[in-house]
């Protein structure tokens, strides 16, 4: 089957991706089945519900046959609020095998997110985790779907042991496929929209990013090669399903490498440490939040990470990452990417210490990037084999985001050094505007999180009658500490931060609101401050 052309990239560039082997025109089901043929008894998933490559491949093919029997095929969408694990992999592989589209959601997704995707896609099937249904606010979901989603042809359960009693009538992935012969491995359109990733929603409505199968296979292959993944590796999957980390980099990449996966349904540092030790995890993809939690562990739990040779992590505190390397003994390989141009840079294994701790990676093969205006720092534009196909039903938004020759306006402020290493600096839109001066809150956060009395921090702008906006440091203090504003501004002065960029207020809180992907929810922080102001005004 001839793959569809990419709607945003020049034809000659697409041809170069294929000639260089960057686009392989192969889907996940074919990769999975081939690995199962080579090593059928090799463990693909370890942990509480272990499965071999052969078992997952067979389950995926049977589930594909079940979906096909229900009329699911090319152009249809399967919406899937799931947790990491072999069932999520079987659902993804089955969906791609039919030429259908998968719209994954993390287990922390809301019912409104599910309804939004159903409305946007006229979904033909919903596969939903029992862990999701067990939440009190999801109690009437099944009846609601049956009543208000007429396009649905199949409703299937995963993690059945975690499901509430009222959902017991739903078949799970295994039961649904049990009566079917394994489907043939299909030849699908690897250039058509396949993966629908929801993004945004922190400061505005969610956008649905469309990716082709070629993009997912490319990004995961590059990641696996750059990180040296092999069949000897056991990879911790802690990123949420529905995010590129859990849907591509710790799902596609291990299968491409023939490695094993230890899924984490819910991040809890001590329990995860024990699982890492028990199953001999060797590689992880984590976030700065995970690293922060790990640094709070006692020595006994720290020792449980001794099998880990390294990990990749997104942009975070340089000092925090350096502290983690010193304490745990592994090497951190920083990486960078966006939902719209999936994980397209990672730090090389042989990069010197000062580069590893001060840059966010070297772009993958085929990636082209530059700073708008030609300076050392500014808005980062990028194009490459993992560029999105566009935003679902948002052509005007797609046109605003991507230039005529295929470069994505990322909205990220970056720097690129002479060797090509990229460094995330901040967001164009996440800027505090104080009396005509632009203040970058991320840079303040990176400095202030190093203060010994600060556990976590978010710096936000709030309205000010004279200045326009005022910077507020919202701090989670370390136990037993009560930092004062002068303590924080003193640290900034030591780093030569101009006084006009200092926070002018300090608010101490027990915890900071986070998005479903573990990032600071700036909108929620601002709302929390506004609610506090109104309470004080009464």
UniProtKB/TrEMBL annotation:
InterPro entries: AMP-bd_C, AMP-bd_C_sf, AMP-dep_synth/lig_dom, ANL_N_sf. Belongs to the ATP-dependent AMP-binding enzyme family. Keywords: Ligase. It comes from the Bacteria. This is (2,3-dihydroxybenzoyl)adenylate synthase. Residues 443-519 form the AMP-binding enzyme C-terminal domain. Residues 34-392 form the AMP-dependent synthetase/ligase domain.
């Amino acid at each position: 089957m001839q793959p569809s052309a990419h709607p945003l990239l020049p034809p000659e560039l697409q041809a170069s991706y294929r000639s260089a082997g960057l686009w392989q025109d192969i889907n996940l089901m074919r990769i999975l089945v081939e690995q199962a043929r080579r090593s059928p008894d090799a463990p693909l998933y370890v942990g509480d519900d272990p499965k071999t490559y052969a078992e997952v491949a067979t389950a995926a093919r049977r589930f594909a046959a079940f979906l096909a029997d229900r009329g699911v095929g090319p152009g249809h969408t399967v919406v899937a609020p799931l947790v990491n694990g072999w069932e999520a992999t079987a659902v993804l592989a089955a969906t791609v095998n039919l030429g259908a589209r998968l719209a994954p959601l993390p287990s922390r997704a809301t019912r409104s997110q599910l309804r939004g995707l159903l409305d946007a896609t006229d979904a033909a099937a919903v596969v939903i985790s029992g862990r999701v249904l067990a939440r009190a606010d999801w109690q009437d979901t099944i009846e609601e779907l049956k009543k208000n989603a007429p396009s649905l042809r199949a409703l299937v359960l995963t993690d059945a042991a975690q499901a509430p009693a009222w959902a017991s009538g739903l078949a799970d992935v295994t039961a649904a496929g049990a009566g079917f012969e394994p489907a043939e491995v299909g030849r699908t359109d690897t250039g058509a929209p396949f993966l629908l990733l929801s993004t945004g929603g922190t400061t505005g409505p969610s956008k649905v990013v469309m990716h082709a199968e070629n993009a997912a296979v490319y990004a995961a292959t590059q990641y696996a090669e750059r990180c040296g993944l092999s069949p000897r590796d056991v990879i911790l999957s802690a990123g949420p399903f529905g995010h590129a980390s859990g849907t591509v980099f710790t799902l596609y990449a291990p299968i491409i490498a023939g490695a094993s996966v230890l899924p984490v349904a819910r991040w809890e540092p001590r329990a995860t440490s024990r699982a890492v030790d028990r199953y001999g995890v060797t590689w992880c993809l984590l976030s700065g939040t995970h690293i922060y939690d790990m640094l709070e562990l006692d020595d006994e739990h720290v020792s449980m990470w001794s099998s880990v040779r390294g990990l990749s992590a997104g942009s975070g505190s340089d000092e925090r990452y350096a502290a983690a390397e010193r304490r745990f003994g592994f090497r951190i390989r920083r990486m960078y990417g966006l939902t719209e141009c999936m994980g397209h840079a990672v730090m090389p294994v042989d990069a010197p210490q000062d580069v590893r701790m001060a840059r966010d990676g070297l772009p993958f093969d085929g990636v082209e990037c530059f700073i708008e205006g030609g300076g050392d720092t500014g808005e980062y534009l990028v194009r490459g084999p993992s560029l999105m196909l566009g935003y679902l039903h948002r052509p005007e938004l797609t046109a605003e985001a991507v230039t005529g020759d295929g470069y994505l306006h990322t909205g990220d402020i970056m720097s690129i050094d002479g060797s090509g290493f990229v460094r995330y600096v901040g967001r164009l839109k996440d800027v505090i505007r104080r009396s005509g001066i632009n203040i970058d809150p991320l840079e303040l956060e990176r400095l202030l999180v190093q203060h010994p009395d600060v556990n976590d921090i978010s710096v936000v702008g709030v309205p000010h009658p004279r200045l326009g906006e005022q910077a507020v440091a919202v701090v989670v203090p370390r136990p037993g500490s009560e930092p004062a504003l002068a303590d924080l501004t003193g640290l900034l002065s030591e780093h030569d931060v101009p006084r006009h960029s200092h926070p002018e207020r300090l608010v101490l809180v027990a915890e900071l609101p986070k998005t479903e992907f573990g990032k600071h929810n700036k909108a929620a922080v601002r709302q929390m401050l506004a609610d506090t102001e109104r309470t004080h005004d009464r």
